[in-house]
Amino acid sequence: MIPDGLWHRSPGWLLGDGAIGGNLQSIWPALVCKRIDGPQPHYQRERWTTPDADFIDVDWLESEASASDPTAPLLILFHGLEGSSSSHYARAYARVAQRLGWRYAVPHFRGCSGEPNLTARAYHSGDFEEIGWILERFRALHAGPRLAVGISLGGNALLRWAEEAGETAEGTVSAVAAVSSPIDLAAGGHAIGHGFNRLVYTRMFMRSLRPKALLKLKSHPGLFDRDKMLAAGDLYDFDNLYTAPVHGFRNTDDYWHRGSAKPHLHRIRIPTLVINARNDPFVPAASLPSPQEVGRHVTLWQPARGGHAGFASGAFPGRLEAMPEQIMRWLRAHGS
């Protein structure tokens, strides 16, 4: 069932709703649309000191229209694994926010803003405490409507925050959306670790994650076994060596179990939109929740096509603004 006012139609040249289409619909927006969508948005960066004496960097979209209107909605975007304010989806939301006169900010997870963070910890899919601290900072800074969207990893973490916050969430943000989020981390983790996904996506992520972890080891000797990290072949191994133990989990299985948003969606008490394409190569369609598994505050939208954080539309070579525009319109309508 398609929720009222929402639609997505992947163009025919992106090859349909099967596995080939799912991969093309994921890769094309990230590699091609990003190169033709115009210049990088103009951001102003702020550095926030965290309670544990570390830092995160927040990029604010420079916009004269929104800056002059303190009542303008603020959209807060939480990026995906190894993403940033320059990711293709972040740029698409920036363009829509600029056009609508919204304020827009991208808080970077630790280590994702171009500079290593200071502490041994980094970020993870269930990092709801960090999400909560960030959102409280925005609450203190912006009096107008505050709305949040999370992409992939950022969406799962945002949902985990909404689940833990329960009735208190509405005082912080009015509505949230999670896009292409692996809300069953075990299902997503196993999917990305096999076949074509392992050859392409796993290698891509490990090329970024492994060097960052090795830098951590230099700053924090004994954090993990260097030889085992060099031999780690996938995210399961990486999480077992670094993500899980550093962030308070017993191992990867414990992390993926406790970090998954899917089992707790019924606890959410603010308007929430959860979007997953059914041909997402990272998120198996069989792992997606049914309406019976979520509470009345959660709206599920599971279009047949779109890939992972893709959702390109229109004539060749495609554009990315249609989905952000719909999501922002939904958030504004349901979060007022």
CATH class of the largest domain: Alpha Beta
* SS-derived structural category: alpha/beta
**Poorly predicted runs:** none
Mean pLDDT: 94
Helix content: 25-40%
Quick one: overall form? globular
What is the CATH homology-level superfamily of the largest domain? Alpha/Beta hydrolase fold, catalytic domain
CATH architecture classification of the largest domain: 3-Layer(aba) Sandwich
The biggest sheet, with number of strands, parallel, antiparallel or mixed sense and barrel status, is:
8 strands, mixed
- How many beta-strand elements? 8
Distance separating the two termini? 24 Å
Share of residues in strands: 5-15%
Question: What integer value in Å does the Rg equal?
Answer: 19 Å
Domains, number: 2
Which properties best describe this structure?
336 residues, Rossmann fold, 2 domains, eight-stranded mixed β-sheet, 40% helix
Summarize the structure.
The chain is an alpha/beta fold and 336 residues long. It has helices at residues 19-36, 64-67, 88-100, 128-141, 153-165, 185-192, 195-219, 226-231, 235-246, 252-259, 322-334, and strands at residues 43-49, 55-61, 74-78, 103-107, 146-151, 175-179, 272-275, 298-301.
